Amino acid sequence: MARSTDSWDESDVRIRPNKKGSRPRTKDRPSHDDAVTGRIITVDRGRYTAVVAEGTDEERTVIAARARELRRNPVVAGDFVSLVGNVSGEPDTLARLVKIQDRRTLLRRSADDTDPIERAVVANADQLVVVVAAANPEPRTGFIDRALVAAYDAGIEPLLLITKADIKDPAELLANYRHLDLPVIISKTADASASGIDARSDDGLSARLDGPAVAELHGYLDGRVTVMLGHSGVGKSTMVNALTGAERATGGVNAVTGRGRHTSSSALALKVTDAPAGSWIIDTPGIRSFGLAHVDPDRILRSFPDLAPGTEDCERGCKHDATAVNCGVDAWVQAGHAGPSGPARLASLRRLLGTDPRQEAQETKELGTVS
Ligand SMILES: Nc1nc2c(ncn2[C@@H]2O[C@H](COP(=O)(O)OP(=O)(O)O)[C@@H](O)[C@H]2O)c(=O)[nH]1
Ligand SMILES: [Mg+2]
Ligand SMILES: [Zn+2]
């Protein structure tokens, strides 16, 4: 490595205005007209890795720094950007990222429900795979519900992936989602005897996943950009490795805290193996919380299609929250229209509509306390 990344600073990437008519000939005078498009696959400490000329003989990986003008604009995995300067992708070269192209979708979150600052998670995803483990770490319906709201809000199709079914039967968890039009894939290790049936001892195990589940998920990925989202330790990277042939670090769950170690620190987009061009999967680091401060209550309600029809009988101005009187959704659920999981779903909706930040902790109460 000729130059440490720290030796670059923002002033290195300032864009000089292009004098009209004088096409820049040297690398010192880049012009936006010369820009090439790249797909951001990862972001690490101010360095943006982009794939340029995807699918052609010239396909290459280019490292770029963000132009000063963009320093307040987050660039995330999945973004399409315009690059100028040295876009050769040769070792030790650095291009300039001068534009974030229009986003088809943007998955966002806030740190918690009171934090007004939106954080971009990934751009241009078509699908969101919400990943939870049947156990170790314990699944949390609050997390699933939040991720579903964020997906619906962003216009991204959700899918539920339940891992570690070799450790625990996920039937109880699944009962909550049976009334949704939500594809569910259940995954486990190929060899139960090697999977750490002792749910506390899979630390360090590199799970070999069951073929049919991997194939089933693979079937959803053709030509699309899919993002994997879930707490640390649920098996995201293990699945991504199985789908891409990559060797993303995977890690165990701490037997004492039940939490995963943060084994992957930034989002990374990878090409899906044996899939048409444009099939990408984005592995993300485990996230602890998924605030929805940026989603308005109406949209939260629409993210519960099993409950939303109940609002037709509400009085005008009904907020459908825990303080609402004669809310039609109560009657809808009592009449059984939302199935046996209706009451639990309504409770989940009301927690999301509430604004008490303490509720997030409460709603992540572990499932399975009855078993
Ligand atoms: N028993 C079992 N362990 C799994 C399964 N999938 C992943 N693991 C293990 O769970 C741990 C965490 O996996 P990892 O992919 O790093 O999770 P991530 O943090 O979500 O990326 C690793 O030790 C994996 O080998 C599974 O289906 N069953
Ligand atoms: Mg990981
Ligand atoms: Zn109502």
> Spans of 5+ residues with little confidence (pLDDT < 50)?
1-22, 195-205, 253-262, 355-371
The residue-averaged pLDDT reads 82
Largest sheet properties: 6 strands, mixed
Tell the overall outline: globular
**Separation of termini?**
55 Å
Question: What's the number of helices?
Answer: 8
Tell me about this structure:
The protein has 371 residues and is α/β, with parallel strands linked by helices. 18% of the residues lie in helices and 20% in strands. It contains eight helices and 13 strands. It has helices at 141-154, 171-175, 211-218, 236-244, 297-302, 328-334, 342-353, 358-363, and strands at residues 36-44, 47-52, 60-66, 80-85, 95-100, 106-110, 118-123, 127-133, 157-163, 184-186, 225-229, 268-271, 280-283. Strands 10-9-8-11-13-12 form a six-stranded mixed beta sheet. The chain has a five-stranded mixed barrel with strand order 1-2-3-5-4. The chain has a two-stranded antiparallel ribbon with strand order 6-7. Zinc ion (ZN) binds at residues 311, 314, 318, 320, 324, 327-329. Residues 311, 314, 318, 320, 324, 327-329 line the site of zinc ion.
Task: Provide a short characterization of the protein structure.
By secondary structure, this protein is α/β, with parallel strands linked by helices. The chain is about 20% helix and about 20% strand. It is built from eight helices and 13 strands.
